[in-house]
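hiii so my PI (J.) wants the whole complex modelled not just the main chain, which honestly fair. so below is everything: two entries, each one labled with what it is. i double checked the lines twice but i was tired so who knows lol
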Amino acid sequence: MEAFHLLSRGGAKFDKSKFKSDVNLFNGKKSKAANASTSARAPEGELPPELDFFKYAQGGQGKRKASEPNGGADAKGKKRRVEEDEDTEDEDADEAEQAAEEDDPPMPRHRVTTKGNNVPEHVETFEALRERYNIPSRLLQNIAQSGYKRPTGIQSHGIPILLEHRDLAAISPTGTGKTLSYLLPVMSALGAPAASSKSNPGSGVRALILAPTRELAHQIHNECLKLAQGRKWKIVLFSKATAATLADKKVREKIDLIISTPLRLVASLQAGNLELNNVRHIVLDEADRMLDAEFLEQVQEVIAACTHPEVQKAVFSATLPANAEKVAMSMLRDPIRVVVGLKDTPLPLIAQSLTYVADDQSKLPTLLQYLSQPYNPPVLIFVSSQPRATSLAEELVISGVPNVDCLHAGMTMKEREDAVSRMRRGESWVMVSTEVMARGMDFKGVREVINYDFPQSVQSYIHRIGRTGRAGREGKAITYFTNQDAPFLKTIANVLLQSGSTVPEWILKLPKPSKMKRREMGKVKRAEAVNNARRIGRSDAIKKRDMVAASKRRKAKETQSKTDGATSSPHADGADGESA
DNA sequence: AAAAAAC
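here's the output for the full assembly
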């Protein structure tokens, strides 16, 4: 447990003691990040270009596109420079965002196809939106201030549709601005704050945005707050704590917009602590995930609680498999379907490759070898389970890789939040994570994704690698595959091919295994996976056992709220208490 | 197809 805590608290802290030179450099020159050496060789103690956050935001990627080969490994040698000195982190970010507007070439324009009755015409500019629709000028002002200049494909098509109060199924690749596509119209239609009693007496929640993970909900909330600046809307990121305040009806009535994961919302509904009868807009972000078997029931329960006859529904995702689309379409009323680019195809901006590692044991040496050479931090590494995330991160730390972080849903909320903010600050060089990070998360600096464990679906693959190559930037994605992954290799290889990456010919020549065969091998693979589940780290079985024991103790404690004595986890319960 | 995530 201790090791687990140490680890999940952050590689950065760990490194302070063990990699002094790195950290000194890092801390000392943080504000001068823009002047960092061009070398990306993090482990040598040079300041890594993770602060490329800024470089990216600042520089026009147009230059890069022309001058750089798309093999990601070459990129580090030819970083664009950031011209000026900047003083504080925050200013850096802000100025960078604004500077980005100047010479930012528009995002690559994808083909857009729409289907539906009376599809509203798209707009080319945000200006055009104002001319055609009655959008609060403050909102447009905030959009400009946040650095948005021209609407992306999904924005120029999706926003008018939503502004005309039509239902929408939107499919647009990762990192192409889906969040703004629904936030702008929803907030535009929000009207006066519920708290101002004259306009909407007792109106309460009027918009609802659902996302599959806490981290994503949090990120959406941040975007929302940016757009809401200067308005007095009450925009709530649903959590245990906020849910507890809803027992007071006066509190709920003042809420204008809720961003939440489904189950949290269902819990409040069932407790009778929430009315959604005045909700006019429901958005499902990462819609295919939200319509997965595990989420579907919860989502339907939430939607059923939104009884207003004019409720508008919209679903957004980068992927929408046929079955999910069917479910989605059946929930929508006279829907319009917008597809940007090719469905289920990643961005060509992401240079993808497949790396053969014979078996699970060979992955770690391969990764360590990779990380011992120059690379572009931060790197996001995906594994298939929580214990594997923990133990891989630990192995990396033990092996001397600096600034390793770990994020999975088995960690406490605080640990998760800390990990995300380290990532946002550029303090994580290597982030090991599970599927929890696969969707929606927008870390502008991430240019390398490594699938340490083979993704379990095409959708998973597309979303994982879509953590890089965002907003027109380039990215690099490496996927390890073992013998066990063979049955699924060709499917993924086809995805690479379709999005312009190259695949070794022998992979393409693989026979497509029959269904039976695939099933059999799948079984082997699963057995193997169970076997491997704890194998990256040495003491992992012990850690896992401790974690399980701790969570059992916590549960036992919840039922018997009196006995507070024997908890090993310092802030497992203390903070939330039972105030409701 | 299966794990992860949701609480």
